[in-house]
């Protein structure tokens, strides 16, 4: 099969080449992939840290070629969205049936390919906050792939949504169109406290977001797009208003029962009720251009590669 392979001698660390077909375990379906989407962790972590010849890829959408031998999961011919730690950037993917969502017939599989990592992370991190109806929720790094899903889902959940971006003048209108009530450059600007935070930036921005958390509020630390260390000042966890605030850690692939949520997200995207925010789309032959846009922070939203 053809696949995007790690090749440290190539400019972006990847080349389109030939790899052995995957051999599915009994609980895995074999999926013919037609589209994938990129995530920053793959570019900054997986590609540099993998040996030559490895096939990366967390997100992939396609059609079941062969059902799992144990009888679980959908039948051949079913369109699906899939999640895994590797192997998504290839024509064939063996994927555990509990990490697979069923996609409506006729759906745009490119749009659906944005749902596994970005959509599920936003949804599951939001679940961790508990009910948000009528409550203030802050999403940091809201212009990114996860953030744009998080803004939409928090708004759907009835929250008063506050979004941060490094450039509110440039991104404010888009974030408000997705559902943000307020757009600010930094959590430190907020006059009123928030009940919940989905933090995608980390570092000093996480510390300032935590500083705006109301008593009994929760901050879910999902990402660290800034790459900066997080250092709390002395006294950050005590004093008036600081009672019983929670910082929760998050790792998507440790979340149980992702399949039904992936099916739901795919249906919402197909119905037009959730915008996948595809801001770069092209052939996987042009993966280098998408990778460069992501690394250079020119890409806000999701990059989708079609396996043509
Ligand atoms: N824990 C998990 O299981 C899990 C799952 C999914 C994602 N993540 C992590 O969550 C984070 C967000 O993921 P994503 O896919 O939404 O990423 P993304 O599309 O790259 O978006 C990240 C956003 O963070 C903002 N940002 C602020 N400071 C930045 C900096 N120094 N460099 C780059 N961006 C910066 C950017 O917004 P502005 O330019 O508008 O400021 C950007 O849009 C990443 O760290 C990712 O690895 C973790």
Descriptive account of the structure:
InterPro entries: ADH-like_C (IPR013149), ADH-like_N (IPR013154), ER (IPR020843), GroES-like_sf (IPR011032), Lipid_raft_assoc_Zn_ADH (IPR052585), NAD(P)-bd_dom_sf (IPR036291). This is NADPH:quinone reductase-like Zn-dependent oxidoreductase. Residues 9-305 form the Enoyl reductase (ER) domain. With 308 residues, this protein is an alpha/beta fold. It has 2 domains: 2-114 and 276-306, Quinone Oxidoreductase, Chain A, domain 1; 119-252, Rossmann fold. 27% of the residues lie in helices and 27% in strands. The strands form 3 sheets. Strands 3, 4, 5, 6, 7, 14 and 15 form a 7-stranded mixed sheet that branches. Helix 3 crosses helix 4 and helix 3 packs across helix 7. The radius of gyration is 20 Å and the shape is globular. The chain starts with a strand and ends with a strand. 48% of the residues are buried.
CATH architecture of the largest domain: Alpha-Beta Complex
Number of domains: 2
First-last Cα distance: 13 Å
The tally of strands reads 15
Q: Report the biggest beta sheet as strand number plus sense, adding barrel if it closes.
A: 7 strands, mixed
Percent range for β-strand residues: 25-35%
Secondary structure category: alpha/beta
InterPro entries: ADH-like_C (IPR013149), ADH-like_N (IPR013154), ER (IPR020843), GroES-like_sf (IPR011032), Lipid_raft_assoc_Zn_ADH (IPR052585), NAD(P)-bd_dom_sf (IPR036291)
Organism: Saccharothrix longispora
Pfam families: ADH_N, ADH_zinc_N
Protein name: NADPH:quinone reductase-like Zn-dependent oxidoreductase
